[in-house]
Design goal:
By secondary structure, the protein is mostly helical. Helix content is 74%, strand content 0%. The protein is built from 16 helices and no strands. The chain has helices at 8-32, 41-47, 60-77, 82-98, 104-108, 110-116, 119-140, 145-148, 156-168, 172-175, 179-199, 201-206, 208-228, 242-259, 261-307, 318-330. The protein is globular and about 65 Å long.
């Protein structure tokens, strides 16, 4: 093999380090808008909860990288120099090859380019986007109905409901399996985001970094709903999307922290208290499922050792999982 044997623990460690870097990048958004450090605490609590379904999943690194490069794109392009524009273009390309979500980097960067650069750079930006799309479709993932979630004749209602449920899914640790609350919370956030973009667009044009952030908040659920709705209603509520949902809430909170500073100052104690309580619910939820997941893994491996049966393994293909474990055992790992 080209690089020898891969230790996936290194991927897990890198993924968790990247989460800290994402928090630093989000802090830069607040610094640019001159929001005090104390007002950033709710975002810290939002990002600091371990996710049982992804923080020990090596493949999740690609998804975290896409968000890392997406945020880096916006911060670089916002610096208004040609050098940083080039770095932003590079980060946008890296976001695209990390995960399909990364394609948002080119789209949400447009308000910043229109505000800080002349039209020539928008043409360069568009050319880069077209080039990376061609490369992506040609060599990485062919564009087709399966990728777009259109293969199962998904109804428009399913797309719309999944779009709304995406916004409310971050509160799943509170409402558990009562999914109607996911629709209620999601509907409130959807209406709030829509009203901000529609009624405050003139203000947002003067603050393009916040506008780009809110477009990220709109683009993520649109893209996830488009790509995952073929799996049925509720497919956008999976725990692996909590990072995306956290970004949505963070950018909405950033808007209010800048556009309505007196309001945030007045209610900040209540916001912080809610953030602490919400952190507790989410932490308890994830630790419970992490312990449950650990017990399932150990029980499956123990059953394989004793009986040779692989049907209890927590793996998408139990037989393949058994073969991997037997190979690992033979190598003495």
């Amino acid at each position: 093999s080209l690089f020898g044997e891969v230790n996936f623990i290194h991927f897990v460690v890198a993924c968790n380090i990247l989460h800290f870097l994402l928090l630093y990048l989000m802090y830069q958004f607040f610094c640019i808008q001159e929001v005090p450090l104390t007002k950033f605490l709710p975002v810290v609590l939002l990002f600091s909860v371990p996710n049982f379904s992804v923080h020990n999943w090596p493949a999740y690194l690609a998804h975290v990288l896409a968000i890392f490069f997406l945020l880096s794109t916006l911060l670089f392009v916002n610096k208004k120099t040609i050098k940083h524009w080039c770095l932003g273009l590079l980060c946008a390309c890296l976001a695209c090859v990390s995960s399909p979500v990364g394609f948002l980097a080119f789209l949400v960067g447009v308000p910043l380019i229109l505000h800080h650069y002349n039209i020539r750079y928008l043409w360069y930006w568009t050319s880069g986007f077209v080039a990376i799309v061609v490369i992506y479709v040609w060599s990485i993932m062919p564009l087709g109905p399966d990728m777009l979630g259109l293969s199962n004749n998904v109804s428009l209602v399913t797309y719309l409901l999944n779009f709304v449920l995406f916004f409310g899914a971050i509160f799943k640790s509170v409402y558990s399996n009562m999914h109607i609350w996911g629709g209620i919370f999601g509907g409130i956030i959807t209406i709030m985001l829509g009203l901000i973009l529609f009624l405050r667009f003139a203000y947002l044009k003067k603050t393009p970094l916040i506008l780009s952030g809110l477009l990220v908040s709109l683009g993520l659920p649109l893209l996830i709903s488009l790509m995952r709705s073929s799996y049925g209603l509720g497919a956008t509520t999976a725990d692996r999307y909590r990072l995306y949902e956290g970004l949505v809430l963070s950018f909405i909170y950033l808007y209010f922290s800048v556009a309505h500073r007196p309001l945030i100052k007045k209610f900040f104690p209540a916001i912080l208290l809610f953030s602490l309580l919400f952190y507790g619910f989410r932490l308890s939820h994830n630790l419970f499922h992490l312990e449950k997941q650990t017990k399932q893994l150990k029980a499956g491996i123990r059953n394989l050792q004793i009986s040779g049966a692989s049907d209890q393994l927590s793996y998408y293909s139990s037989q393949r999982g058994a073969n991997i474990l037997r190979t690992v055992a033979q190598k003495g790992i």
